[in-house]
Specification:
10% strand, 4 helices, 61% helix, flat, two-stranded antiparallel ribbon, 186 residues, mainly alpha, two-stranded antiparallel sheet
């Protein structure tokens, strides 16, 4: 029985190694294409006047980075850079608008519950719970954009851009796992 178990484990290990090497070789073959697609995606997000310049610069920068994972990481960073550049450009081009001045007597009221269960309402930035004596500092937290949109009757709707991001992250994850397995197995 022990011999059969050892044989099965050997065969499973051999099959796992073969599949891992196959996936590693396949991912090495596809990585340059994926990197090119990511760079093109970043370039498309830029203003048309900037596209040619940054395409050359970013491609040259990626070519200088050693390793496929490093190149892919840098290329994914270009997506973020292109998005920030576009947002900054839109903010500069936005027309100035008149806004209503907020009166100085506007007061923000903070309403929350202490860890001991006591309800606390205050207008100050620091407050002490009357029940347990804990002191809380209140600070403003940046709100994040929701990743999911709410559809009809409260159903969640996954958008196409979320699927694209998920595909890129899954590809990077598979490449990273194959590379790590290849390092571990030699």
């Amino acid at each position: 029985m022990a011999l059969i178990t050892a044989i099965v484990l050997f065969l499973v290990g051999t099959l796992g190694t073969a599949i891992s090497r196959l996936l590693t070789n396949e991912s090495r073959a596809w990585t340059p294409r994926i990197i090119q697609l990511v760079i093109r995606r970043a370039i498309v997000r830029l203003h048309p006047a900037q596209r040619e310049r940054f395409e050359e610069e970013w491609q040259g920068h990626v070519d200088e980075v050693p390793g496929e994972i490093g190149k892919l990481t840098v290329a994914l960073g270009f997506l973020t850079a292109a998005r920030r550049m576009t947002l900054a450009e839109k903010a500069e081009d936005a027309p100035l608008t008149m806004t209503r001045e907020i009166p100085s007597e506007t007061v923000v009221e903070y309403d929350f519950r202490c860890f001991c269960g006591t309800s606390i309402v205050t207008t100050e930035k620091t407050v002490t719970c009357t029940n347990c004596g804990k002191t809380f500092g209140i600070r403003r937290v940046r709100k994040h954009r929701p990743r999911w949109n709410i559809g009809p009757q409260g159903q969640s709707v996954l958008q196409l851009r979320d699927l694209k991001k998920l595909a890129i992250y899954a590809t990077v994850g598979v490449l990273l796992l194959c590379w790590l397995y290849e390092l571990a197995c030699g």
